[in-house]
Task: inverse folding
């Protein structure tokens, strides 16, 4: 009996690189081509939008500063007209406001120049792995709509409770509240620094209440008070019989906070 063997070669992903600097575009193209990706280079927003009208790639690496449009304008057009195309913003103007603004508008990720090839590759791989089937996207969208009323109620309750907290009016305080409003709508991890008693948990709660997770759980864990032998169980949970005294299954803080916010106090 004869057997015929076939070699199945994975389909290459298509990546569009948009950068007004042809040297950077060429460098990224050569690097990604060696990693088994198909690449196409453009130097303006108009060029890439014309290309997308006929061909939809898997990912666009988009420079924030272009000669005809801003990267933000091109991003908005891609998100609106080609929702299946992931976008990673590349820019030399790596301030937090720019990063958060583009992520809020639909960018998958944000990297700054000079671009480190290995770092970019890991982000590209993560973006391409995160593709969702249409049915899952629709289901998630429906679920998000159902949460809107809960988020609205949570924010209203928070506004009432926050009246008991005195907000500072110094420049530092104003900057703090500005940063909270910037990061709250995103899914970025946030580190809050401050001495004991300065209101770190309150700030964490404010980030939570102003976020898309406002209607979900806010789980606070005082890491400084966790016994060393029980820290793993507290954070990650355990099943019945896992150790002496574990008489029942117990979910950990990470599981309890799923879909909401986990605040790890005194994590240092």
Result:
């Amino acid at each position: 009996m004869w057997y015929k063997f076939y070699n199945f070669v994975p389909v290459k992903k298509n990546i569009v690189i948009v950068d007004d600097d042809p040297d950077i575009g060429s460098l990224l193209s050569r690097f990604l081509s060696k990693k088994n990706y198909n690449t196409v280079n453009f130097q303006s927003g108009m060029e890439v939008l014309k290309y997308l009208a006929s061909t939809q790639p898997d990912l666009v690496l988009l420079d924030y500063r272009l000669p005809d449009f801003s990267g933000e304008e091109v991003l908005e057009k891609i998100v609106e007209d080609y929702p299946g195309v992931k976008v990673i913003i590349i820019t030399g103007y790596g301030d937090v406001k720019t990063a958060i603004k583009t992520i809020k508008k639909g960018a998958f990720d944000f990297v700054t120049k000079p671009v480190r090839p290995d770092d970019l590759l890991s982000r590209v791989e993560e973006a391409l792995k995160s593709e969702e089937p249409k049915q899952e996207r629709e289901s998630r969208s429906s679920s998000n709509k159902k949460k809107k009323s809960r988020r609205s109620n949570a924010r209203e309750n928070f506004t009432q409770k926050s009246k008991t907290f005195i907000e500072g009016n110094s420049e530092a305080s104003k900057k703090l509240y500005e940063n909270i409003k910037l990061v709250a709508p995103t899914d970025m991890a946030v580190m809050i620094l401050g001495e004991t008693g300065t209101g770190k948990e309150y700030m964490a709660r404010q980030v939570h209440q102003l976020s898309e997770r406002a209607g979900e759980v806010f789980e606070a864990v005082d890491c400084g008070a966790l016994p060393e032998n029980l820290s793993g169980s507290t954070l990650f949970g355990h099943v019945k019989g896992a150790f002496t005294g574990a008489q029942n299954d117990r979910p950990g803080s990470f599981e309890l906070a799923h879909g909401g916010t986990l605040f790890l106090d005194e994590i240092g």
